[in-house]
Amino acid sequence: MADPVLSLRDLRIWYGAERGAVRAVDGVSLDLMPGETVGLVGESGCGKSTLGRGVLGLLPEGAGHAGEVSFKGRNLLDIKQRELRSMRGPELGMIFQEPMTRLNPLMRISDHFEEVLQIHEPKIGKKEARNRSMEALRGMGIPPTRYKQYPHEFSGGMRQRIMIALALVLRPAVVVADEPTTALDVLVEAQILRILADLRRNFDTALLLITHNLGIVAEACDRVAVMYAGRVVEQGPAYDVTTKPSHPYSRELLRSTISLSTTELHSIPGAPPDLVSPPPACRFHPRCPNAMAVCAQQWPPTEATSPGRRSECWLHATDRIPVGLEQPLQREALAASEEA
Amino acid sequence: MSAPVATQTLIEVRDLNVHFAINASFKARVTGRGGATVKAVDGVSFDLHEGEVLGLVGESGSGKTTLGRALLGLVRPTSGSVKLRGEELVGLPERDLRPKRRHLQMVFQDPHASLNPGMTLQTALAHPLQIHKLTSGDAETQAKVRETLELVGLFPTQRFSDSFPSDLSGGQKQRAAIARAIITGPDLVVADEPVSMLDMSVRAKILDLMIDLKERIGLTYVYVTHDLASAKFFCDRVAIMYLGRIVEIGTVDEIFNEPKHPYTQALIRAIPEPDPDKALPRDLPRGEIPDAARPPLGCSFHPRCPKAFNICGWEARDLQTMLESRWMDLGEDRYGEERPLVGDFSKLKSTEHDAFLPAGSGKDPGELLALLEKIRAEEPDEPMWTGVKEMHAEAHGVRVTFEPGIDPPLYETGGAKAACLLYKPD
Amino acid sequence: MTATTSVTGAPDTPPTTGPPKRRGGILSKIAAPYKQSHGVQRFMLVTGTAVSLIIVLLAIFAPLIAPFSFDTYQADGARFPTQGEPSDVNPWGTTVQGFDVMSRTIYGARTALEVLILAVVFSLAIGVPLGLISGYVGGWLDRIMVLIMDALFAFPYLLLAIVAAFLLTNTIDSGIVVTAIAITVVYVPQYFRVVRASTLSAREATYIEAARAMGAKPSTIIRKYLFGNVVQSVPVIATLNAADAILTLAGLGFLGLGIQPSEAAEWGYDLQRAIADAGAGIWWTALYPGLGIVLAVTALTLVGEGLNDVLNPTLRRRRIKRPVISSSAVGPASAPTTEREAG
């Protein structure tokens, strides 16, 4: 197997807030292989976006960090801002949720592309730049006749595709896409998902796709990492995780998704914890239907449940639970109102 | 969901129109005249029975939200009729409409924005009661607020009645917003995407609550959403909207088991399912929702429709779309060969069913005609060609004559009603 | 119960640390900006407030603090000297008319406070409701109101105040009220603009539409839903305008308009009388009233700018310590190297 293009080791990103440190990302280890698409799912407030930005070395002001984000043998968190900026584009790309705010309304689409290409590849000729840009746009379904138009002449879906094309025109090694289709309509979303799914065949770009929609994960991702309260509780091939989730949180999240085949509503009791003072030990234990006494007292081990899959849960290390702590956890029932 | 029990009609909507004037140009803005109109709701008719849940499903810009608001008179309909138990609401002055609001309530999409940040839940919930003078005295008001908070699952009520919206989570806020909507004992609640801003893990709980309330206090819902999956679960009947029109309306079983309109069929197939064995189909409609200020001729879905045929309303714009999508698929070389033959698209002229495609400067219109004929031969499956009656070269370009299109009304199909010419009786 | 909001689609942001909840007594509301401020902001706020408080105390207790009344020209039967140097009897000297400078300066604070309070009350009472109605109702009413207010705004403010004072002098007896109204005319457009602007944005909020859907009348919506969310911008502008109003008041007094010398002591009037003295080396007649104006304006400006920095979200910068990730506080790393096949 190839070496990962990007690997996170015990990454922690804590925000400062008046009440104390917000542990948005708290001990995440994850690998991105060249050309693969990894989905990052979880409820809001679980640290998905913080992790996504942290992967690119974009830390919010006043955030502390530990661990490493190694990319081509270097820790991105230690690199100077100036150098990091020059890496964004040719090495690291980002696709945001709201495309309109990222395009300059006074610049033609062609200017956006040519500017990006000229900054990062100064030797590129005008003709070459044009061809590369049009090729990238074609791949995203933007007709070449519209190359000279301004951003406002495009619809929301087209702008998002232009943003994706713009992020990919330099062929970066890693792209983070933060909810790229959330603001879009179903049919347009499907078009973009198809484009993203095609990407992994045509490019070597590794894509970290942040989403709350498990349908998108099943559709467009090779692997998936399920995040809860700042930690990746389960990761593995998208097919396996979406068909046979091994962590109770992944299972509950999947069950609570309303899809066309839903015949019965299901929801997870309670709400994601306050990340300033998360619950001790396993962070999911207050909401977990399978919680045991040990879950509230000792950190669950990270177990490989099958090749390429890891799950952070005591259910997969029952042989190591201290004697007397296997019984179900006694706790007060959560009121219906204690929800997210 | 069980089939709706046939009861009396609560709301009757006939030929409802909501048009907005948009003053695009400076002159139009100054004079207030000459701007275009957007038909946000365009001739919509349906009945709503008591105790029923009707889903209004569509993409953004389909007019579903405007329709929901027009039912309540929050947006003034341009024409048409909305009758609540036989009583006309359209055209009533605001003053006379206000007392009716007691019976017609709304739950908004964004729970964070729909509650006044400066009011405690107690004050916020008591206010509708005071407006409609439904209680006498503070004690009764307070008791009613408590009761309603309990009804929506916000208990212990004393903890919630004094809290401000900023103290609550998203789901709790939406519960409070629902409480505010039901406290006056309404007949109809229009729920505008009530769960779309909430997390997956909470959506089910809010939908559960709404179903529960429907049974306990006898509500009728209009559920406005873009999410077909939740509509399938929650609704009795579903109306699919596209560019201000209802393009298909029927029971949930009809719509989801046997969708008739190609748009509905596409929507249902486009939902990404968490089941990895179901991949998205690759033949989904191209393009995006057209500009509502200039809707396509004939059936407004025809430019994207895979099943479109000769009478769907082909016009000049479709010619441009066809050429553009062809050039997108062709390589740079072919594009470079073909593009110069065609002139500036902004000079593309259109009269009724006629289009004039200008030739590139200094190019022979005959060459352009030959190109179009070649494309027609290469891509016979392109639906647009079914609508092209004739093409001939003129002085500076090619004139293309299209088959006259028909704007389809809702046809009976044996199941759901669909506004599609495929079901046009001969 | 957690403070974490959950909006799917919105980026995961850390729980916002907005201003503390508006609850509790009015005292805690007033104290809030002082608690939230830091560094320079806090210094500005505290200094400004302290100086303002001293001036207010001087104004209120002027009869107790000042050695004489503002129009006293004699003590124990002996007339004060005119333009007398600071002495034991008149610590800051006397004016050309033979009044005690210290007493007049202290009483001047009283006049300024009276005019300010009246002017602010008038401006609020006119500007805020007009702004609310204009912003909420919109349409022609709004256009006409904006036109009028902009016309007022376009005038040089002192000219406007002079005209207003001139017109009113004969109809209203009290010079203080006349001056207060003249100042009100100048500052109403500012309140109107600020309130109208925030009304325009608040009007689009969903909770306003929700109130409409509830069946609330426009007047109820304005009172119960708009007012509370719109007035938050008023304290800042009121304080800044108050500073400006002191200058207008002094300007009017300097020109001999508004308050009659027999009615109250006024810094601007005193300065005008002291013009000739400065050339003759008589510094005390001009220094103390001038100092009064400068201190009052500076203090109010400091409070206003300080409040603006704290309350205005676009200027506010949170100062939060970078969290230190201590090894004792963290859970185990989930490193893939520690993988172990499950039995």
Q: What's the shape of chain B?
A: elongated
Number of helices of chain C: 12
CATH superfamily of the largest domain in chain B: P-loop containing nucleotide triphosphate hydrolases
Low-confidence stretches of chain C: 1-23, 335-343
Average pLDDT of chain B: 87
Q: Mind describing the biggest β-sheet of chain B?
A: 7 strands, mixed
Class by SSE composition of chain C: mainly alpha
Residue share in helices of chain C? Answer: 55-70%
SS elements, strand count of chain C: 2
Strand content of chain B: 15-25%
CATH architecture of the domain at 36-74 and 91-198 and 233-316 in chain C: Orthogonal Bundle
**Oligomerization status of the protein chains:** heterotrimer
Count the E strands of chain B.
15
Shape of chain C: globular
Order of helices and strands of chain C: HHHEEHHHHHHHHH
What is the CATH topology descriptor of the largest domain in chain B?
A: Rossmann fold
Estimate the strand proportion of chain C.
under 5%
Write the topology of this structure.
The complex is a heterotrimer of chains A (340), B (426) and C (343).
Chain A: E1 6-17, E2 20-32, E3 37-41, H1 48-55, E4 63-71, E5 74-75, H2 81-87, E6 92-95, H3 109-120, H4 126-139, H5 156-168, E7 174-178, H6 186-202, E8 206-210, H7 214-220, E9 223-228, E10 231-237, H8 238-243, H9 248-256, E11 302-306, E12 309-312
Parallel strand pairs in A: 3-8, 3-9, 6-7, 7-8
Antiparallel strand pairs in A: 1-2, 1-4, 4-5, 9-10, 10-12, 11-12
Chain B: E1 9-22, H1 26-31, E2 36-49, E3 53-57, H2 64-71, E4 79-84, E5 87-88, H3 94-100, E6 104-107, H4 121-131, H5 138-151, H6 157-161, H7 170-182, E7 188-192, H8 200-217, E8 220-225, H9 228-234, E9 237-242, E10 245-251, H10 252-257, H11 262-270, H12 316-329, H13 332-338, E11 349-351, E12 354-358, H14 365-378, E13 388-393, E14 397-402, E15 417-418
Parallel strand pairs in B: 3-8, 3-9, 6-7, 7-8
Antiparallel strand pairs in B: 1-2, 1-4, 4-5, 9-10, 10-15, 11-12, 12-14, 13-14
Helix pairs in contact in B: 4-5, 7-8
Chain C: H1 26-36, H2 39-60, H3 62-65, E1 74-75, E2 78-79, H4 101-137, H5 139-154, H6 157-169, H7 175-203, H8 206-214, H9 218-230, H10 234-254, H11 267-279, H12 284-311
Antiparallel strand pairs in C: 1-2
Helix pairs in contact in C: 2-4, 2-12, 4-5, 4-7, 4-9, 4-10, 4-12, 5-7, 6-7, 7-9, 7-10, 8-9, 10-11, 10-12, 11-12
